[in-house]
Write a structure and sequence with these properties.
The structure is a homodimer of 313-residue chains. Chain A has 313 residues and is an alpha/beta fold. Chain A folds into 2 domains: 2-110 and 304-310, Nucleotidyltransferase, domain 5 (2-Layer Sandwich), CATH 3.30.420.40; 124-296, ATPase, nucleotide binding domain (Nucleotidyltransferase, domain 5, 2-Layer Sandwich), CATH 3.30.420.40. Chain A has helices spanning 37-54, 58-61, 94-102, 111-122, 181-185, 187-198, 205-210, 218-226, 230-254, 264-269, 273-279, 303-310, and strands spanning 2-7, 11-17, 23-30, 65-68, 73-74, 79-80, 106-109, 131-136, 140-146, 149-150, 258-262, 294-296. The radius of gyration of chain A is 20 Å and the shape is globular. The A-B interface holds A 130, 144, 146, 151-161, 163-169, 175-177, 179, 242, 245, 248-250, 252-257, 282-286, 288, 292 and B 130, 142, 144, 146, 151-161, 163-169, 175-177, 179, 242, 245, 248-250, 252-257, 282-286, 288, 292.
Chain lengths: 313, 313
Amino acid sequence: MRIGVDIGGTKVAAGLVDSSGAITHKTRVPMISAGTAAAGFSAVSAAVETIFAAAPEARAAVTGIGLCSPGPLDPARGIVINPPNLPCWRGFPLTAEVERVFGVPARVDNDANAAGLAEVLWGAGQGYANVFYATLGTGIGAGIIFDRKIYHGRTGSAAEGGHVTIDYRGPRCGCGKFGCIEALASGPAIARLARAKLAGGTRSQILELAGGLDEVRAEHVGAAFREDDAVATAVLEEIALLLTVWLGNIVDLLEPDCIVVGGGVAEMMGPFFEKISCNLPRWAINQRAAEIPLVMARYGADAGIAGAAALCE
Amino acid sequence: MRIGVDIGGTKVAAGLVDSSGAITHKTRVPMISAGTAAAGFSAVSAAVETIFAAAPEARAAVTGIGLCSPGPLDPARGIVINPPNLPCWRGFPLTAEVERVFGVPARVDNDANAAGLAEVLWGAGQGYANVFYATLGTGIGAGIIFDRKIYHGRTGSAAEGGHVTIDYRGPRCGCGKFGCIEALASGPAIARLARAKLAGGTRSQILELAGGLDEVRAEHVGAAFREDDAVATAVLEEIALLLTVWLGNIVDLLEPDCIVVGGGVAEMMGPFFEKISCNLPRWAINQRAAEIPLVMARYGADAGIAGAAALCE
């Protein structure tokens, strides 16, 4: 039994996770991201204490506390370096503090790395050694699991899969590069593409659901697609192609045993997974690319909790 | 002491390699790529026997014979699967045959994987655990070394770094994808870019060296660049940008400890390495990307021999 703590800029979610990866108790408290490091840490303590209060047997049984924290991090030393979203924790020795307060081993990593590990240990990537995990949502994050362990790279910054460019002359990404898959196929990019297609006055359920062109978000596109809307279908087909090109690059570099995708955009794109797999050999030199399972993540909104807990395996 | 054998569609090169990676004896014989598997194998035997004849002490001292063979291969089982350039060896158990004939352990891998390993063991990547190796020439090959071992992926087809696309709406690559770095920055792509710039009638030493527009090859661009030719400089600056974008993707996915590049185009691009490194943070979300050493390979034309020998370490 282990506790997973998912720390964000505005909230801390924590859960008790059993040996099959099931989350048996969950809580969520506000994060205190400004002020002192201790104030921020008090939110983490409060979340963990809430779990112990709900499951008193856990206090003796928990063998580790894992944490996902905004980066950059030094996972090996358990230190939060200088997260833009958590200014209070610059250089904060998070795992040492958790170990001191709760008396059990603690580990920290970024959320996509951790979520990828949880999928390999308990989820859709179970049974595979080398897995590429991606979370497709407002941003696109990734985790590379080699030999059932997180691959960190030189300083812990590997697996920035969302910032692989497939179109260096394309639109600018928030990161400063051009044509990153995050700039092309994230939630905001889906909304942008839909708005562009609708700007000419085309009728679509997307507009009815959104209430106006400026209000269009990715979830409206997803909902309209489920109603067979033609514009929504065209938008998601373009996104499917972009994801195919991107995954082709991943396969040609890493040839993973399995590709696991999660997040809101992944759920929206589920009906296209088979098509993406089939088309992968067109966008990979690897002619056996279609054999690589492309599967939906087990963990949705709880990926951070499960991932954090997986760090303690 | 080990023997490295580099098998191509038209020749077999072999060398005796000492424990520091120095190639002390070398030979080259024609490959017999049509006909029976045994005929093809006789060329390998002849190359190895030539080495033994030149260095008789090697017959007792050699601890392994490594081989680079055209793929696809099954490195784990030592089998050549169905190489387009070596039709005689479809399903051929190459390492078993070498072990039977020469009585020492044998290993096989593709040339870029093997050359990458040689660089890590004995060359420009020495001292690093995770290295991205690329050979830039007529094609672009790559090898990924993780934890000082070749990373093969699911079926041995990982590390096809030359077929990472950075421009999916760009020119078609020989592999069928669009905008692969091989289609944009290999030797033939450099020649194509130079011809395009010269087609309007611009004066350039490239044309004098080549003798005509249709005769322009990458080496003419390299030679003209060394003479400060403006068109050649403009061409190689464009190539440097394309390589920067591509390496940015590699860094964002793999964050290697070191990047080693070899091959004729790499030698031509040597004067741009520092600029590529400096610009890498513009094309990587990793803001420490410029710290990653970008270095010239130790092995040039002998990369296959050294690589093959490295497989026996």
